[in-house]
Specification:
By secondary structure, the chain is of the alpha/beta class. Helices cover about 45% and strands about 20% of the residues. The chain has a single domain, classed as 3-Layer(aba) Sandwich (Rossmann fold). It has a five-stranded parallel beta sheet with strand order 2-1-3-4-5, sandwiched between helices. The radius of gyration is 13 Å and the shape is globular. It starts with a strand and ends in a 9-residue tail after the last helix.
């Protein structure tokens, strides 16, 4: 399955997502904030990053912008419980595969991951290709 980086500042939700995705068969790493996520992206290869939007240090939108620039092959899914943040994130539709509204079901999450992973890299987000050295 996919190599996924989950970025969520709430420990219980972060661990729940890690366990659910691991049980599904995905290879999952976790990070508690955007700075930690950028370090993990630099140290590993991921197919997809699932990140919360509302986080300390670096919000998920800033993280998505940096990840898209530095790691263009990584597909991006955002999650939020706030309508205003969802609207902000929708402006990134050219970079982000989907914005999930919390609470979401595992069926919704798995479908969003599968849809993102099923797209050829050229369609995952425009301009994405192999990571530059």
């Amino acid at each position: 399955m996919a190599r996924i980086l989950v970025v969520e500042d709430e420990p219980a939700l972060r661990e729940f997502l890690r366990r659910a995705l691991t049980k599904r068969g995905d290879n999952v790493a976790i990070a508690g904030h955007g700075g930690e996520a950028m370090l993990k992206l630099r140290d590993g290869r991921y197919d997809l990053m699932l990140t919360d939007i509302a986080m300390p240090e670096m919000d998920g939108i800033e993280l998505a912008l940096k990840a898209a620039q530095d790691f263009p092959a990584v597909r991006l899914l955002l999650m939020t419980g706030y309508t205003d943040e969802k609207r902000r994130a929708e402006a990134l539709e050219h970079l982000v595969n989907k914005v999930l509204m919390k609470p979401f079901s595992m069926t919704e999450l798995f479908a969003a991951i599968d849809a993102a992973m099923d797209k050829p890299m050229a369609e995952a987000a425009p301009g994405q290709g192999a990571r530059s050295a």
